Amino acid sequence: MNPDRPATAPAPGGAPPAGPPPHPEDTGYRQTLKPRHLTMMALGSTLGTGLFLGTGGRLATAGPALFLAYALAGGFAWCVVRALAELILHRPTTGSFVSYAREFLGEKGAYTAGWLYFLNWSTGGVADITAAALYSRYWSRFTTVPQWVLALLALAVVLALNLFSVRVFGELEFWFAFVKVAALTAFMALGLILLATRHPVAGEPPGLGVLTGHGGLFPHGPLPVVLVLQGVVFAYAGIELVGVTAGETAAPRAVVPRAATALTWRIAVFYAGSVLLLALLLPWDRYGAGQSPFVTVLARIGVPMAGDAMNLVVLTAALSSLNSGLYSTGRILRSMALAGSAPRFTARMSRHGVPYGGVLLISAVCAAGVGLNYLVPERAFEIVLNLSALTALGMWSAIVLCHLAFLRRARAGRAVRPAFRLPLAPFTDYATLAFLLGIAVLMWQDPGTGRATVLAAPVLAAALTAGWFLVRRRLTGPATPPVRHRRDTP
Asked: Domains of the chain, with CATH numbers?
């Protein structure tokens, strides 16, 4: 008997009996992702340009106390993942939080959450291919190649690999994540050696003296640390990927708790820990927005080809993010299509168990982003990144709202909470919602791109409302999914 779908006995971890047969939105998939895939994806899903590149400028703005901002934002990101993990153990599904929104908030909630997710990853995908093109031009052999050509090439390569099979996706994402984790681990090991030996990095030995001797933790006061939170929180984008991959693992109720638990020390070590280490190695005012802080330190101690090595890492991070976006959005769109809130062709499944209709749709949007790289190459990254930030707030809020609804059902005796839970819920849920609302307020306080992003919210709401009136008549709930190659049995 499959331990993830028992007929009568409780599932491992205290989950309630699975009872009914597999949900239609979960049929056709091949559960070929292994525990090592999911664990490494959980480790590397959020290690992107927000950490490898964005930290330098934030250190220069906020000072050494930046690590506190990373710890605070990471704590609430952890709450989102634990809430999602609890929902996964309640009912593993490839539809992830969109499927849970349908169960707990109704079709309107699922429609809103799903299209916010689509917008988040499609705009993020445009940012990823733009970043990949920019990073490629770091090497002289690519400087003469137009930016839009490099962006299109990055999309084409990742799309081809994503369409092949989920096993190829898992292996590709495993090694993408491995490169990022290994690079960060190697840097932190080197940094700890420098600390232990007191080897000078910028004319003075690293340690607490560097941290406190240049204006202290708050050289510009606490306000810059608060304001920089709006940028820090989006360094954790991608944490929800574990919810989508759970439906394609053989034993999600065993793997998901391990993957979610790994997030705890990842946030503490890789985010807050690495930023604190940077502040101990080099004075905060030696960093800048134009260079990776890791390259800054490596260059100061004379490590050869530090720039080439780190550029390869951030290029890998951009391709990894694009790979994850195509994968997860294709699954989300299929869940929506089976309910009638997305185009029907996005429910189509290939003989390899890949929902190619949804993958092609988001790829088409990303391809349109290649046009931005052609028309306004110098602004393409900034334009799409702002909209991605706004939709991420709505996406995380939807996960928390689903968890609150699940808790109400559990208190009414109509559901059983698993043993692996979000601690102190529902208070942690309300605190997370308040934090996300606070981030939106901070964005409004930014007179530049932040305020423009918040002003785009009514336009986005109007578009979602118009779309709802177009699809609501055909919402029938998930039906049997169309599988093009019926001879292929998962």
From this structure: 31-472 (1.20.1740.10)
Residues 6+ apart with CB under 8 A from 6: 17, 18
Please determine, for residue 360, whether its predicted confidence score (pLDDT) is greater than 90: yes
Name which of 344-353, 354-363, 480-489 the model is least confident about: 480-489
CA-to-CA distance for 234 and 73, rounded, in angstroms?
Answer: 9
Q: What is the pLDDT of residue 402?
A: 95
pLDDT computed for residue 270 by the predictor: 86
Instruction: Report the C-alpha gap between 143 and 158 in whole angstroms.
Output: 22
The pair of structure tokens assigned to 380 is 């393409």
- The model's pTM is 0.83
